[in-house]
Amino acid sequence: MTGNPQTNSHSADATHGSAPASPTDSGAQDVLRTAVELGLPSTIADLCALVRIPSVSWAAFDRAQVAASADAVAALVRGLDVFESIDIVQAGIPGGTELGQPAILASRPARNGRPTVLLYAHHDVQPPGKDEDWESDPFTPTVRGDRLYGRGAADDKAGVMAHIASIRALVAAVGPDFDLGLALFIEGEEEFGSRSFATFLDENREALRGDVIVVADSNNWDINTPAITTALRGNVTLRLTVRTLAHASHSGMFGGAVPDAMLATIKLLATMYGDDGSVAVAGLTSIDVPTPDYSEEQLRAETGLLPGVTPIGHGSILSRIWSQPALTVTGIDAPSVDNASNTLTPAVSVRISTRIAPGQSAVEAAAAIEAHVREHTPFGALVEIDDVDTGEPFLVDTSGWAVTEARSAMTAAWGVPPVDIGVGGSIPFIADLVRVFPAAQILVTGVEDPDSRAHSPNESLHLGVFKRAVLSEAFLLGSLNERSGH
User: Fold this and answer.
1) Tens-place pLDDT, residues 246-288
2) I need a surface site. Which of 72, 145, 241, 436 has the fewest CB within 10 A?
3) Residue 265, helix vs strand vs coil
4) Is the alpha carbon torsion for 403, 405, 408, 409 positive or negative?
5) Contact 304, 269 (CB under 8 A)
6) What residue spans of 55-213 are helical by DSSP H?
7) What is the pTM for the complete model shown?
8) Domains in the chain and their CATH numbers?
């Protein structure tokens, strides 16, 4: 967006000067709705300011930008004036002395028997990729139609602002002296594998403790229908290096007699797939769960699948995305086309990203991938696997009262009830949260829709979806603020 939109006050003026509504007022939702709507211009302006900060958490990018993003988020949190403690925190990455990226941690205790809600989002973003693939600069927030474009506009700075805006609305509706306990955790390295999360969790356990955990980092069914994510695949990512020669050699002189590393890599990678493109690594498992109707036409429309290119895999389309493994080569280190010479390449490295189905441990999946590599490496090539990251899959228990409250809030905000969905992506730290806080109820919500293109060029946020997501969370917080005896 070129220039900030006009900023409105997000204070108690949203109640038109009247006294804050009591929790039992029948018009409490109307007050929250008004507060969200009046605060929306300033919410979007704050979101645009965050998008302008290129807070890529990957190792090759400037850590100072992630720190600047953390500072900006912390300033927004301080402006809420509801938390007793607000800190920017870094935790150590296990196995070394390096610190992870900065996160924001804020808390206020519950009173009078009310529950405590932990609100999670992340302020780091994916690398933008090539500028020429974007229709506008990735870090210049730009509105086209009803969508806000920019890296992080959806994933997940909109999640950050959904939390900020819903708390603003709660304050406008009931005042700052409410009884609901709140903890806010805005992570700074989710896109880089949450490498310091386990340490962060151990060091800040009490500040993160909540009866309900809301993770605002997922998707909705479409722009008119909300969703609660109930299944997430896990992940195993690794670097695979294949070596066949001590040095490069002339391809004309020796080609046909010795294998180069590219040949060996191609043949090895091919063994990981069946003829239909599904994963053919023994030991990677699937689960059998019912899925809603989802046509090939919808898949083509949402993914940009080119005419004549067929989908891969077997079973229902959503089962391939939600409950079966997937293996993708996401990067390759080899001579570029422009720099290609007539030589046999001695070594090739590839980055492999594997999504694993709920019900399988990431350690077990990683072992299965390594065993497959060792068994299927051709020509006696030397292989090395390193830089391994794992994340556990997750299935949400939907039987608790918090899910019921969330469904009611979403229905009121969107005008239609939410659907339960699985997600092909991964949020590995959820399994860690459940391990440490087994009694907590998990709600995985989000601000994205199928056209958001998170991680891709031209990432965008549908502003109507964003408004309804904020309203849903505001209704949820308002409802939980009335709840006792949890």
Assistant:
1) 999 999 999 999 999 999 999 999 999 999 999 999 999 999 9
2) 145
3) helix
4) negative
5) no
6) 63-80, 157-174, 197-203, 205-208
7) 0.83
8) 12-232+393-482 (3.40.630.10), 234-288+323-391 (3.30.70.360)
